[in-house]
Specification:
The chain is of the alpha/beta class. It has ten helices and eight strands. It has one domain: TIM Barrel. Helix content is about 45%, strand content about 15%. An eight-stranded parallel beta sheet has the order 7-6-5-4-3-2-1-8. α2 packs across α10, α5 packs across α6 and α8 packs parallel to α9. The protein starts with 5 loop residues before the first strand and ends with a helix.
Length: about 280
């Protein structure tokens, strides 16, 4: 089994001159350059206000008409700050619930969520971090199950390993107990794994059938650059071998930043990304 649709985060479209975002126009762009699925940035829903159902309905209708599958989405992960600079955790929680409700409303099957872990933590505090995440995730899993959405826990990046720090939930062994506790899935971010210093195929074999979402992107093992594959230093032959060995068959999904380019060049880059995606799927064997 192989992925049959090349997908990308809706952020692939929104990061452009002017900074405007129309979910309906985004579907048109994806269709025109050849993407046949979209990883919708559900975090944008609260900014739509009380009109969110109408906007999402128009997007979903356009996607169905153009055969662009909205199979997965990304839940909020950016902190909300008050005027005094403190984190507004209550508003973040309300936004999470609204976004999960929205995912169910438009039929998103898989919603990616970030586990919590201290970037300057240690492996020794894993059991404590696991307990905290189970408590934190419980209301979100319960709502997701009620609205027909399966959560996918994403591997975090741990870029400070050389300095003696470790961010928990950056490896397969750390993600699996969290996913299995709730009976949910895993999203594998290749860029995060690369900055952590992991061998992609080995981690993917451990994740196995739990893998329901991909964040395909590249970097140079330092910052989280979100480049297209082969523009960084990830071993893509090894990564695709790992996907092939576990028979991954969901959407082949990019989480890349669109360079701020004029429209005609953006069309070219989009088509290039689609062609590259098909080539990578072939490499799965």
């Amino acid at each position: 089994m192989r992925p049959t649709r090349i997908s990308a985060s809706s952020r692939f479209y929104t990061n452009h001159p002017g900074g405007t975002f129309s979910p309906v126009e985004m579907i048109d762009y994806f269709h025109d350059v050849g993407f046949r699925a979209v990883d919708f940035d559900i975090e944008t829903v609260p900014a739509m206000g009380e009109d969110w159902k109408r906007i999402l309905s128009e997007m979903a209708e356009r996607a169905a008409r153009k055969d662009v599958l909205i199979e997965m989405g990304h839940l909020p992960f950016h902190s909300i700050l008050r005027e005094d600079g403190s984190k507004d955790r209550e508003q973040f929680h309300r936004n999470m619930l609204r976004c999960i409700e929205a995912a169910g409303y438009i039929g998103i099957k898989h919603a990616v969520i970030h586990p919590k872990g201290d970037p300057k933590g240690s492996r020794e505090q894993y059991e404590q971090d696991l307990a905290k995440n189970i408590e934190y995730m419980t209301p979100y899993v319960e709502l997701a199950e009620r609205v027909g959405v399966k959560l996918a826990f994403e591997n975090m990046r741990s870029p400070l390993e050389a300095s003696g720090f470790h961010r928990n939930f950056s490896t397969a062994d750390e993600l699996i107990p969290l996913a299995d506790h709730f009976g949910q899935g895993i999203c594998w971010d290749f860029g995060h794994a690369h900055t952590t210093g992991l061998i992609q195929s080995e981690e993917l074999r451990k994740v196995g059938s739990r893998l329901i979402c991909l964040h395909v992107n590249d970097n140079h093992a330092g910052g989280d650059e979100h480049l297209l594959p082969f523009f960084g230093s990830i071993n893509w032959a090894d990564a695709m071998k790992g996907l092939g060995e576990i028979d991954f068959g969901y959407c082949f999904n990019y989480e890349c930043r669109m360079i701020r380019l004029p429209g005609d060049v953006r069309e070219y880059i989009g088509r290039h990304a689609v062609a590259l995606g098909h080539k990578l799927v072939e490499m799965m064997g």
